[in-house]
Structures are given as C-alpha cells and as structure tokens.
Amino acid sequence: MNPVSDPRPKRSRDRITKELFHLLEQHPFSAITVKMLADGANVNRSTFYAHFTDKYDLMDQIVEDHMRLLVDAIRIHGVVPPESPSVEKVSRYFERLFIHIEQHEQFYRTMLLQGPIKTFISRFLDTLKENYRLVFKAHTVSETRRVDQDLLLNYVIGGQLGLLISWLRNDRPYSATYMADQLSRMIVFGTVESIGFPNRTQDTV
Description:
Distance between the termini: 77 Å
Oligomer: single chain
Number of helices: 9
Structural class: mainly alpha
Largest sheet: none
Strand content: under 5%
C-alpha cells in the first residue's frame, strides 16, 4: 500500500485523540498516562510515540489544530473603510464564533468546563485577541480612543470567555444567533447603555 494514501496512521491518531477526551471525562489531565491512552485507543505505545512525543505534545497538537479552525471561522476578510460598527455587522462576526463552538462542542466543553487547562485558555484568548487587534488596527483612529487598547482587548475577550463558559455550562439554552445578537449589542452599545442608563455622549468632569 502506498504510504501516502495509507489511512491507518490517521485512524490511529484519531483513536488516540478520542481516547484522550474520553479519559478527561473521568480524570484530570495530570493523571492520564501514555499507557492509559494507548490501551484505551487499542494501539501499541510505539504507535503513540510515532505520532506524539508525550501526552503534552498530543494536547498541544490538538489545541493547535482547533485554533487553526477557530481562526478560519472568525477571520475578517477584506478591508473596508473605518466606520461605526452596527449591531448587524458585529452580530455576523460573533455568530461565526458561536457556531464554531457548537460544531466543536465536545472539545470546548472539555477544555473549559471539565477541568480547564491553563495553556489552552491562554492560547484561546490570544487567538481571539489577535483577531481583534487586526480589526482595531484597520478600523480605528488612535486620536479617538478613550482607553488603553490592550486593556480594552483584555476586557472584551475576558467577557466573551465568561459568556461562552456560561452558555456551555447551561447546555446552550440560547441559539448561536441569539447569543451573537446579544453580545454584539453589548459591544456596540457598551456596558452603561446596555444596562439601561441614559446615553451620555460626553464625559462629565
């Protein structure tokens, strides 16, 4: 059989990956061993080491694969002139994010709820942050900024992470479209106006 077309290596990788998430439902990542992964996936340890250096390399590759999928899902294509974002436009962006989470729910539920892995959360937030940074760079004017951009990015993505965790923890009680619409309103209108306080167009002294 031609090694290039041999599907067996991919099947082995898939079984090992599936077994990792099965084990994470019962054990913390720190307690999982290569032997447990190999036995559960019904592969030899040599097969495991043919694909991964250790369990940390396995996790790193899984996270990297999912972050590439995330970037593809939420990437902003093209450059348009700077303008005030509308709820509809922002909602379209966030809908892609929530749909992506839905499509890969087992991965995100495991990583965020069943035993959060700090390295993943950091990587996830950095991916969202970098996408925002590109958008801000193309569409904002530095002279009009009222707050530190880096702090603003941390505030926005931290809020999104909390919202995503709550959504998953409660078994997605709302649709991706509804979540995207609500989050876009929070972003466009801001915290104060979203709460219901009167709109203030100028800072008071």
